[in-house]
Write a structure and sequence with these properties.
33% helix, metal-binding, binds uracil, 4Fe-4S, globular, Uracil-DNA_glycosylase-like_sf, iron, hydrolase
Length: 297
């Protein structure tokens, strides 16, 4: 399945089909994609980070489980410009209008020209959805470059929120064991990221509007890292990246293709989330099949 990117209307921000879908779901498509209001003079907002020019083997013997400790178990830098939502009203005309104020920028535009370091700064400063209020750390992601595999999970849990690193709790230990079973190292070959960069309270499921607000960061990570393939873990990551509401069971076992903004096709392999595997160890055999598929693509 592909996730092609369409070309938006002339002056409207560029959004990919996934972003458009979420915007539609939120009832914001028309507002969001409306051409920006003409800039008029107003006090310049403080935008310190952003650029102003606007961007489980086998049914018989799987190595996955036993290598793991037994399951006991906008960017909007503090300013008004980047929160996901309808475009703000045009600023009132100043009496002596000498300079045009920069138009507020949605996350999708802010990330457009960011390099990886800039993107990380944007994520750390992001206030695009309510999750920023409860986080200790935003979790940008971590891994090696060049990136052979991009592994995409759902959202940080408690340990990840504490440490600011992805998959460092029990799920992460299982993930490391799964990866090493196919010869992949977290530090050397793999970049690990999540759809949502901030922990949802009590590890609840991410809300559609949170996914919509955060997914431009993931899309930009994909564009910058140019992974050879993407392993998506769990329903939220699979549905977000493939633009579908299909179940994991129906998506795993085959290779999907995701098309980037640059027209590059990246093979996408879907598997179960490690947290699910910890609760349902019998599924590790299937996860092992998925990993072997990813390894031979
Ligand atoms: N679960 C996830 O989906 N991501 C993490 O980083 C940790 C747990």
């Amino acid at each position: 399945m592909t996730a092609p990117h369409s070309t938006p209307a002339s002056a409207a921000p560029r959004v990919n089909p996934l972003q458009r879908l979420w915007l539609r779901e939120l009832g914001m498509e028309r507002l969001w994609l409306r051409p920006a209001p003409p800039a008029v003079a107003a006090p310049a907002p403080q935008v310190p980070v952003l650029k102003q020019d606007f961007s489980t083997p086998p049914a018989a013997a799987a190595p996955v489980p036993d290598a793991v400790p037994a399951p006991t178990d906008t960017l909007r830098p503090a300013g008004p410009g980047l929160r996901n939502g309808p475009p703000p009203k045009p600023a009132p005309k100043a009496e002596a209008a000498v300079e045009a104020a920069p138009a507020p920028m949605p996350v999708a535009m802010a990330v457009k020209h960011a390099n990886l370091d800039e993107l990380r700064e944007q994520v750390v400063a992001c206030t695009a959805c309510g999750l920023c209020g409860g986080r200790r750390h935003a979790v940008f992601g971590h891994g090696g470059q060049p990136t052979r595999w991009l592994v995409v999970g759902e959202a940080p849990g408690e340990q990840e929120d504490r440490q600011g690193q992805p998959f460092v709790g029990r799920s992460g230990q299982l993930l490391d064991a799964m990866l090493s079973a196919v010869g992949m190292s977290r530090e050397r070959d793999v970049f690990i990221a999540n759809v949502i960069k901030c922990r949802p309270p009590g590890n609840r499921n991410p809300k559609p509007e949170e996914i919509a607000a955060c997914s431009p960061y993931l899309m930009r990570q994909i564009a910058l890292l140019k992974p050879e393939r993407i392993l998506v873990l769990g329903r939220f990551a699979a549905q977000t990246l493939l633009g579908t509401d299909a179940t994991i069971g129906s998506l795993r076992g085959r290779v999907h293709q995701m098309k980037t903004d640059e027209g590059r096709e990246i093979p996408v392999i879907v598997s179960y989330h490690p947290a699910y595997l910890l609760r349902s160890p019998a599924e590790k055999a299937r996860a092992w099949q998925d990993l072997k598929l990813a390894a031979r693509v």
